[in-house]
Amino acid sequence: MIKKMALTQKSANKIFGGWQKVFSHKSAELKCAMNFGVFLPAQSETEKCPVIYWLSGLTCTEQNFVTKAGAQRYAAEKGVILVAPDTSPRECNIEGEDESWDFGTGAGFYVDATEEKWKENYRMYSYVTKELPQLISENFPANGKQSIMGHSMGGHGALICALKNPGMYTSVSAFSPICNPTQCPWGQKAFTGYLGSDRATWQGYDATELVKSYSGPALDILIDQGSEDGFLKDGQLLPDNLVAACAKASMAVDYRLQPGYDHSYYFIATFVGDHIAKHAEALK
Amino acid sequence: MIKKMALTQKSANKIFGGWQKVFSHKSAELKCAMNFGVFLPAQSETEKCPVIYWLSGLTCTEQNFVTKAGAQRYAAEKGVILVAPDTSPRECNIEGEDESWDFGTGAGFYVDATEEKWKENYRMYSYVTKELPQLISENFPANGKQSIMGHSMGGHGALICALKNPGMYTSVSAFSPICNPTQCPWGQKAFTGYLGSDRATWQGYDATELVKSYSGPALDILIDQGSEDGFLKDGQLLPDNLVAACAKASMAVDYRLQPGYDHSYYFIATFVGDHIAKHAEALK
What we know:
about 25% strand
């Protein structure tokens, strides 16, 4: 008998005719308490709805997307549930977990760690692809269809979750994703810390590498990237590498370089309606 | 010769084709540095646009509206400039200014204080109705037409600014406003502190009182109020008193009690599009 996991409601606010709620639960994968946001459109009161997962970027909690993206309006129109988890385990008492803004707390990087110090808690990949969907299907009126999107580190997360699990997500999109983490400073730091120094193991969490061997239903990736994003200029995001790999693998990718936009939630707010519309269409 | 006031740009983010900027300046009225947010729609690059002022509630800075309301989308569509000032003077070194969340810092109440301790700095009424509009007209492509709206304490602020200055604002609206501050605990505390114990002077800053003597162009007030707003239940907002005063004075008011909504920015985000559409139509 599978024990239904217990959820504690932290907040509930009516918005655009539906409900933005935040729950806390004890995660089996991460061995700590985790928060996630869930937007339940009015349609979900009378019928089961598809789910879009949102994965956030470095330093974020579940709150950033919930309060700043303005996504509920579009999800309300389309009748989709939005789920936004936190970005890492919290308060695990691991030495050094709070030392960096780009590693440890707030920076789980959506991998399952193999290094001794981190492997008990830092299993965000399994949390996002297994535990959280099970939790959602057990506790909310989800119809079994799901898509995934994210921002920056969470854009990387969305891409690898879709590429590693053909058929699990109907569609995938990303805002300013870290496209080739094995080749950028953020990714190299995180992968060294969580996965160790054997670079061969890193490739299983790198979208640009995963595209080369993907075999499954067409994903038709949508990526929005701001042209004035400082992290793009710093070589942390490397979208050109992903676009080139997609071209070589004949994988469709709609890469939109948006002139003047930066890396912020102002950028996300501007285009999240396009992403939700695309996912909602695919999830029909 | 009038000296043009100097602005310091604190941030600029592209959003919905326009720019969300935050500026700081030294306020002559408040004798301290003040921040305000301004959204400049794409239309303002080639033509002068109308302005809608937003006044925030207790504890807010200029950031709450800028990051949480999702208003830029609607302002971009309608071609209106949005201006969101802070809610009080800051760091004036007045004894007790930081002791309460509902008085002093973050709680200017949009009055010009007369009490000795506060009267040098706490002049938010003059700041919002005189200094700030002058600053906007000198520094941004404003066409001279303006409306005003706000939330809670800022809803009170919007209503009194419009009622005390017939013709200055083309239209006025409010979310969960403090409608009758002379009759509620928040208002009584603030007015006692800023204006002293003579209740006759309080009436000049009370929307329900001002409606009785208003003489000027029709204002056609729009008010949205959440039915599950805890402050409504606590008797802090008293919209029925304002609605009754409007009925008696034959002033049009569209009072919408929105079932299930609370006092939060989730509520504001849901209906701010309606408010901007109404103001934009009036400002044409």
